[in-house]
Amino acid sequence: MNAAMPKVIRDIQVLRAIAITLAIFSHLSWLKIAWYSQLNKNFNPWVGVDLFFAISGFVIGRELLEMKSRNERKAAFFSAFWIKRVFRILPSAWFWATFALAATMAPYVFDGAGYLAGTLPEYGWMMLQIGNVHYAMCTPTCGGGSVFYTAYWSLGLEEQFYLVLPFVVWFSGRNTLVGILFGVIALQFFVGRPHDPPNALWYFRADALAWGVLIAIAANEANFQLPKQRIMYVIAGAILIAAMTVVPSTGLGMSTALVAVFAAGLVYIGSRNRNYFEAGRLSPIVQWLGARSFGLYLVHLPAIGLTHWIMTNPLAGAEPYDALSLLPLVIASALAGCAAEFNYRLLERPLRKVGRRIAQRIET
């Protein structure tokens, strides 16, 4: 087994920054920017979510393997892990879901009681972290709720993953665990999971998560290092990102499965902790994006929605804006950045520390 790796791997933070940039870009259509539709014809930025899944699989898989190696008590293993996840995820997710609900009640922003009536049930699904179940049940006719909750389906899938994976890790030997993970991948590989319009299986695509756990197993056991030629991995990373964003446009039935494979390739390179993806002078910005990627994922849709209202609502005194203008993008970026920083400093980081302290007491 390798020596313990650092809690924060800089290359993984770079990949988080790339993932959140892609995820945000996938929702810019709501700003009605003219150049976006042209750029988006053969570019599929929604794959940022699959990159997040692969990263989560690696990070959580690595954590569970380390916890299993130092815990002989089953109760300590499960409770310590779930305590950390609860404090890491739920406060921020619940806060911004409630913020979005409050926004729907603000005067002149949305179209009154009818809209709110559609939003309240959706709010309940998201607070329970089963948004993916909700969307799978109503697809492809989902409607009547808040666009602010669109991103919450992936949080639901990850939370369900966090509930199931500890049992699989604890009760399985290494070979059984690997077999189960490859089984999860194989069951989905040739199944059509189109993006537009999505089918129900779209909201349960767990193959990237499984790939991430397999990478964690490999990183935990491998006794070799990749060659040091950084340029090789920069080029490989660029090719993998390009392949991820383009392959869904090919019409291949297995394109979503291939996206997961390409995402796993990126995470495998990043998992070696060799700073292959170091961003030079842009590194502080990239690391900031990576560290706050969870908050940005939660707040970017409210920021985009509020920006659209500011720029278009005549009740607020707005004039129709030039679709070629970058102003809405600047406003949305500023709102999302400020909200993410607020979330990181006042919610995410302090409560994550609380969860870790409680988990440490449980394990000792």
TrEMBL record:
This is Acyltransferase. The keyword Transmembrane applies. Keywords: Acyltransferase, Membrane, Plasmid, Transferase, Transmembrane, Transmembrane helix. The keyword Membrane applies. Pfam families: Acyl_transf_3. InterPro entries: Acyl_transf_3_dom, Acyltransferase_3. GO terms for cellular component: membrane. GO terms for biological process: lipopolysaccharide biosynthetic process. One of its GO terms (molecular function) is acyltransferase activity, transferring groups other than amino-acyl groups. PANTHER family: ACETYLTRANSFERASE, ACYL_TRANSF_3 DOMAIN-CONTAINING PROTEIN. Residues 11-338 form the Acyltransferase domain. The chain crosses the membrane at residues 12-31, 43-65, 86-110, 130-149, 161-190, 202-219, 231-247, 253-270, 291-311, 323-347.
